[in-house]
Specification:
Blueprint lengths: L1 E2 L2 E5 L5 E3 L3 E2 L6 H14 L3 E3 L7 H14 L8 E6 L6 H15 L6 E4 L18 H13 L6 E4 L3 H10 L6 E5 L7 H9 L3 E5 L28 H9 L10 H15 L3 E2 L6 H8 L8 H8 L26
Parallel strand pairs: 4-5, 5-6, 6-7, 7-8, 8-9, 9-10, 10-11
Antiparallel strand pairs: 1-2, 2-3
Helix pairs in contact: 1-2, 1-9, 2-3, 3-4, 4-5, 7-8
């Protein structure tokens, strides 16, 4: 079955989630975002991934409610994911912070609520609060879930070890995990762990996040340098194999995009690529129209370069820094 026109995956509690959605990080310009969101809904997107730090929850709420008011779509046909930033991960601060998100999104519930990181900070945003553990963060999310304000709860940027610790105290299973995942960071072990425990994985940075070097809200963020995924020989070779018409010869870049996204879908991973252009939105969604074969997957699994692009330097020094081993 599908939602919009994306295939659905089933979370362990039965709530259904589209496998393809729209990431909205760096979509904070109102006019542009509204146009892109409306185009996405018209094309068939129903999953929208946001967070308080993206500063666009209000725009997403406004566009969704515009479509609901037209009467063609019901709220349950949308899947909205938002997150709780480290400054509000203290169990006492989670609910009031999340209620702000609900107000901005203008919705009685979200479909998925994630702890944006495993690290808790003081409200000032600069000071780590090392006293809050991932177990406590998880117990805070469970309270929100039990109030019915989130249809599912999950984690983002957590390690296997942290998920394991949360699971040991959990009364509600971890429904979903969002992590950086792409051909240069395939996350084999984490994906296997999640499959074993019925945790749905969503990838961010699936295309190498070309926009990651653009200052965001005036901040120049720290990102690792990396080769261009679209020039990776294995990707180009597979893209050429799947061109379906001679006209697509000139669209090899578009096909490379599709190969990189299809690689994740064929591994059972959900994707939330960001785009503001109607043509790219459509191309990203059209990945449902073909599959990679086992040889393609093997080739992409064997791409030698291994690199995390989003280093989340702000976690450095926190006892719950999930990337500490890689620094």
């Amino acid at each position: 079955s599908t939602m919009g026109n994306a295939p659905l995956v089933c979370l362990s509690n039965g709530h259904k989630m589209p496998q393809i959605g729209l990431g909205t990080w760096q979509s904070d310009k109102e006019g542009e975002s509204e146009k892109a969101l409306s185009a996405a809904i018209d094309i068939g997107y129903r999953l929208f991934d946001t967070a308080p730090t993206y500063m666009n929850e209000e725009i997403i709420g406004k566009v969704m409610n515009k479509y609901l008011a037209m009467g063609n779509l019901k709220r349950e046909e949308f899947f909205i994911t938002t997150k709780i930033w480290p400054t509000h991960l203290h169990p006492d601060r989670q609910l009031p912070h999340f209620q702000e998100s609900l107000k901005k999104l203008n919705t009685p519930y979200v479909d998925l609520l994630l702890a944006h990181q495993p690290t808790c900070y003081e409200v000032d945003g600069n000071t780590h609060d090392p006293s809050v553990t991932v177990e406590q963060i998880w117990q805070g999310l469970e309270k929100i879930y039990k109030l019915g304000l989130a249809k599912a709860i999950g984690v983002s940027n957590w390690s296997i070890e942290q998920m394991e610790r949360a699971r040991a105290v959990a009364t509600v299973p971890i429904h979903a995990a969002q992590v950086e995942c792409h051909i240069y960071l395939p996350q084999f072990e984490l994906v296997d762990y999640c499959k074993k425990h019925k945790i749905i994985v969503t990838s961010y940075g699936s295309l190498g996040s070309p926009a990651r070097k653009i200052p965001f809200n005036g901040l120049q963020l720290d990102f690792a340098d990396s080769p261009n995924m679209f020039e990776e020989p294995a990707v180009v070779e597979i893209a050429e194999k799947y061109k379906r018409t001679p006209a697509q010869l000139s669209q090899i870049l578009k096909k490379c995009f599709q190969v990189l996204l299809r690689y994740l879908l064929d591994r059972g991973i959900c994707i939330i690529p960001k785009s503001a252009s109607r043509e790219r939105l459509k191309a990203n969604r059209d990945v449902v129209e073909f599959h990679l074969d086992d040889d393609d997957i093997k080739k992409l699994n064997a791409v030698p370069h291994r690199q995390r692009l989003f280093m989340q330097e702000h976690m450095k020094g926190h006892p719950e820094d999930s990337f500490a081993a890689e620094r």
